[in-house]
Amino acid sequence: MFTKAITRKPCKALIDGITTAMFGEGTPDYETAIKQHDNYVETLRSLGLEVLDLEADERYPDSCFVEDPAVVMAECAIITNPATDSRNGEKYEIVDAIKKFYSDDQIFHIEAPGTMEGGDVMLVDKHFYVGQSDRTNAEGFRQFQKIVSKFGYEATAVPVTEGLHLKDFVIYLEKGNMLVSPKMDKEPAFNGYTRFVIEPEELYAINSMNINGTVLVPEGFPKTLKLIQDLDYPTIVMNNSEFAKIDGSLTCLSLRF
Ligand code: CIR
Question: Which of 83, 84, 120, 187 could bridge 115 with an S-S bond, Cβ 3.0-4.6 Å?
Answer without folding.
Answer: 83
